[in-house]
Design a protein that fits this description.
4 helices, elongated
C-alpha cells in the first residue's frame, strides 16, 4: 500500500466514510460496566440520637465549619507517608494538626 493510499484510507476513516471506520461505529456499552443502583432509605437511623453532639444548649459555633481553600503545599515525603499510613482523609488530619498548633499559639500570645 502506498503512502497516498494510506492517507486516503485514514481520511475516510476519520470522516466516517465507510463501515469499517472507527468514527462510524456506535459505542456499545461495556459488558462489565455497572450501573449504580439507588440505595434504599433507612429512616430508623435518623430517629436515633447522634453520637458526639452535645445534649445541652446549642450555639452557632457548634455548627461552624470554616471555608476550605485549595492550595498547593510542598511537604516532606516522610511527613506525608506518616499521615497516609492511617488511610484515607489524610488531608483532613493534616488540617487538624495545623489547627491545633494555630490555636495553641493564639492562646499563648
Amino acid at each position: 500500500m502506498t503512502r497516498k493510499e494510506r492517507l486516503a484510507k485514514n481520511e475516510t476513516a476519520v470522516r466516517g466514510g465507510h463501515e469499517g471506520s472507527r468514527a462510524s461505529k456506535k459505542r456499545a456499552s461495556r459488558p462489565g460496566a455497572r450501573r449504580k443502583r439507588p440505595r434504599a432509605l433507612d429512616l430508623s437511623a435518623s430517629a436515633e440520637p447522634k453520637k458526639g453532639l452535645p445534649v445541652g444548649p446549642m450555639r452557632i459555633s457548634d455548627f461552624y465549619r470554616p471555608l476550605k481553600k485549595p492550595v498547593t503545599l510542598r511537604l516532606d515525603a516522610d511527613v506525608i507517608a506518616w499521615f497516609k499510613k492511617d488511610g484515607r482523609r489524610y488531608q483532613t488530619r493534616i488540617n487538624a494538626a495545623l489547627r491545633k498548633v494555630m490555636e495553641r499559639e493564639m492562646k499563648s500570645s
